[in-house]
From TrEMBL:
The keyword Hydrolase applies. Keywords: Hydrolase. Residues 36-484 form the Amidohydrolase domain. It comes from Cellulomonas humilata. Its EC number is 3.5.1.81. This is N-acyl-D-amino-acid deacylase.
Length: 501
């Protein structure tokens, strides 16, 4: 295949010849030599984009989600985020069931995988989707496989069992480990447990990727915990969806880099987040990893009386996925409460109890975050793009459909936060280095032919909070391992993606 007359990110016009799944030649005016030709006149030829943080663990197999990703130029997604996903789940451990239930509103339910090894999970992605998939061993799933829902520090023998599972997951092809330190049961992990696991990662030069114990005003203390682990073990560290006041958060990253620590982070260009309602509505002293026990406790008036007020939270919450009550999706919690004739607190509890805690929501971030802060963190050289895309529900966050197109259209073309070469770094190269995907992330001879042809004048996101599933436009072609998954702005039907082991 010959990509004719495109502009590389640095503005040089060249042809790109694709031989099989690799870039074979880059030069002006290459002969056709029997190749199929893609006319790239007026288009940028960029390395395929890497979504450094996506919750498509089940739904990457859904054609609608594949369309959302591929129309933005994404060629690789990094799964297993926030410490919760489907593997490893040894027989009888219940770990896959825990992940399926606890993160039902985030990851969805895998159509075929019902437990097993990381290798067995990765096999479900091979040639079954338009994008490549990279996977992180999820610490919360490890912990559940060894300890169940127990919210306590692990014993040394339990830590040793987690270490063995982590090593096996890395042997199976995982690119690192994720922690979700705000989520149960990983929130009970102590320093000794995390050090033991990070030592494994450091020995293998694999990253520790973390949803920290807190963000916004809690981010400095939460990041300090990760940096302590990095100093102690030498592990490379990546912070998930880093957000908050840039005047405080940026210097923390600068200081860590000046110290010689290996630190990166991802973020998305929106001022609303998305999560499970249980995290926003319920305190961490409830056993949230055990929904049946939590629901039984919530039936006790004495327990309900101890629940902390969340009056500052309720006005910022909108429902994204409410199984059995789709009428509530897209409504604010205040509107749901009014329709139910309840207080917002009682309405939140009602939704949680009647769905076995399986409710997703979109929420406005507190005023400590701002557009200026978000843009400042985007410009930081340690940043790479991650959508934190959640695809479940009738009214999800638009970031899964718009992040990469928004970064190109708004933040490059309109605002000038990056130039095009810098955009290629943030959307591809930094993430490929972070996750050890060394044969992709640049347009260079010998690299994997994961390529995106973008119209710099028209690339635009269309997904909004009111209409979150609208596809991006302005990406004309996407090659994955040299196979066109998108041509002339339309999906080809090819499924060239594979699990990157």
């Amino acid at each position: 295949m010959l990509i004719r007359g495109g502009l590389l990110a640095d503005g040089v016009r060249a042809d790109v010849r694709v031989d099989g799944d690799r870039i074979g030649q880059i030069a002006p005016d290459l002969p056709v030599d029997g190749s199929d030709v893609i006319d790239a006149g007026g288009l940028l030829v960029l390395p395929g984009f890497v979504d450094a943080h996506a919750h498509a663990d089940a739904l990457v197999l859904d054609p609608d989600v594949q369309a959302a990703l591929t129309h933005q130029g994404v060629t690789t997604v990094v799964l297993g985020q926030d410490g919760v996903s489907f593997a490893p789940s040894p027989p009888g451990s219940g770990a896959a069931e825990y992940a399926d239930r606890y993160f039902a509103a985030i990851n969805g339910s895998h159509p075929t995988f019902r437990g097993g090894s990381v290798a067995e999970l990765l096999a479900t992605y091979d040639r079954a989707t338009t994008v490549h998939t990279a996977y992180l061993v999820p610490h919360g799933t490890l912990r559940y496989a060894v300890m169940g829902a127990d919210d306590r520090p692990a014993r040394p023998d339990e830590v040793a069992a987690m270490v063995r599972l982590l090593e096996q997951g890395l042997d199976d092809g995982a690119r690192g480990m994720s922690t979700g330190l705000e989520y149960a049961p990983a929130s009970s992990a102590d320093r000794a447990e995390l050090v033991a696991l990070c030592e494994v990662l450091a020995r293998r030069h694999r990253p520790h990727v973390s949803h920290m114990r807190g963000y916004e005003d809690r981010a400095p203390a939460a990041l300090a915990e990760l940096l302590d682990l990095a100093r102690t073990t030498g592990v490379g560290t990546h912070v998930s969806h880093y957000h908050g006041p840039a005047e405080r958060l940026g210097p923390l990253v600068d200081d860590a880099l000046a110290e010689g620590l290996d630190l990166t982070f991802d973020s998305y260009p929106y001022l609303r987040g998305a999560t499970i309602l249980a995290l926003a509505a319920l305190p961490d002293w409830l056993p949230l990893a055990d929904p049946d026990r939590t629901i039984n406790l919530l039936a006790d008036p004495a327990v309900r009386s101890r629940l902390p007020p969340r009056d500052e939270v309720w006005p910022r919450v909108t429902m994204s996925w409410v199984p059995g009550a789709s009428w509530a999706e897209g409504l604010s919690l205040l509107d749901v409460a009014a329709r139910l004739g309840m207080t917002p607190a009682d309405a939140a509890l009602h939704l949680l109890v009647t769905t076995n805690l399986q409710v997703g929501c979109v929420f406005e971030q507190p005023p400590t975050n701002s557009d200026d802060s978000m843009r400042a963190l985007l410009r930081h050289p340690a940043h790479c793009a991650g959508s934190d895309g959640i695809y479940r529900g009738g009214h999800p966050h638009p970031r899964g459909w718009g992040t990469f197109a928004r970064l190109l259209g708004r933040h490059v073309r309109e605002l000038g936060d990056w130039d095009w070469p810098t955009a290629a770094q943030h959307l591809s190269t930094t993430a490929t280095r972070r996750f050890g995907l060394h044969d992709r992330g640049t347009v260079a001879t010998g690299q994997r032919a994961d390529l995106v042809l973008v119209d710099p004048a028209t690339v635009t996101d269309h997904a909004t909070y009111d209409e979150p599933r609208r596809l991006a436009t302005g990406v004309h072609a996407v090659l994955v391992d040299g196979v066109p998954a998108l041509l002339d702005g339309r999906l080809t039907g090819a499924l060239p993606g594979r699990a990157v082991r």
